[in-house]
């Protein structure tokens, strides 16, 4: 099985999170930007379903290139109940192979393509969801976790 890249990132509070913190199954989702419509839909859907993730003993981390301060504002504004990790230079995103070309308002740009990983305690990727739809994301992930 493929391994998730090694990482050491700060969360919104400045606490360091690494692969060693991945105990059991973990959902790591990459999203383009705090407080944008799709990313907000996705984050709020996770927030509203966090009890289901908790019941399955699954941690959830969101990852974007935004700053710690941006993550803090996003969490406060939307009352998010999970950690967001700071990948300001998109190093982890590049290593996880989630950087690509996409259309943003008709312009071709390069950036994070919405992608979700389910990783186990051995850092093995159990599932990778590419080009995730913000509205169907949580449903797909929970379905996979419950089948596993």
TrEMBL record:
Molecular function in Gene Ontology: thioredoxin peroxidase activity
Recorded GO cellular component terms are: cytoplasm
Q: Tell me yes or no: is Hydrolase among this UniProt entry's keywords.
A: no
Catalyzed reactions: a hydroperoxide + [thioredoxin]-dithiol = an alcohol + [thioredoxin]-disulfide + H2O
- The source's domain of life comes to Bacteria
What are the coiled-coil residue ranges? none
User: Has the keyword Oxidoreductase been applied to this entry?
Assistant: yes
Which residues are catalytic?
Answer: 39
Alphabetically sorted, this entry's keywords are: Antioxidant, Disulfide bond, Oxidoreductase, Peroxidase, Redox-active center
- Where does the Thioredoxin domain start and stop, copy by copy? 1-148
Could you give the subunit structure recorded for this chain?
Monomer.
Function of the protein: Thiol-specific peroxidase that catalyzes the reduction of hydrogen peroxide and organic hydroperoxides to water and alcohols, respectively. Plays a role in cell protection against oxidative stress by detoxifying peroxides and as sensor of hydrogen peroxide-mediated signaling events.
UniProt family annotation: Belongs to the peroxiredoxin family. BCP/PrxQ subfamily.
Protein's name according to its UniProt entry: thioredoxin-dependent peroxiredoxin
Q: Which organism is it from?
A: Nosocomiicoccus ampullae
The upper taxonomy is: Bacteria, Bacillati, Bacillota, Bacilli, Bacillales
């Amino acid at each position: 099985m493929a391994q998730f890249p090694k990482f050491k990132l700060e969360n919104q509070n400045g606490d360091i999170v690494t692969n060693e913190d991945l105990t059991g199954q973990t959902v790591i989702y990459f999203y383009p930007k705090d407080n944008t419509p799709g990313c907000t839909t996705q984050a709020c859907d996770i927030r509203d379903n966090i009890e289901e993730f908790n019941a399955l003993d699954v941690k959830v981390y969101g990852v974007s290139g935004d700053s710690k301060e941006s993550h803090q504002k996003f969490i406060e504004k939307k009352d998010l109940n999970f950690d967001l990790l700071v990948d300001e230079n998109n190093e982890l995103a590049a290593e996880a192979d989630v950087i690509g070309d996409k259309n943003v308002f008709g312009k071709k740009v390069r950036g994070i393509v919405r992608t979700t990983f389910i990783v186990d305690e051995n850092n093995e990727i159990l599932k990778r969801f590419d080009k995730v739809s913000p509205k169907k994301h949580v449903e797909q992930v929970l379905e996979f976790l419950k089948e596993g």
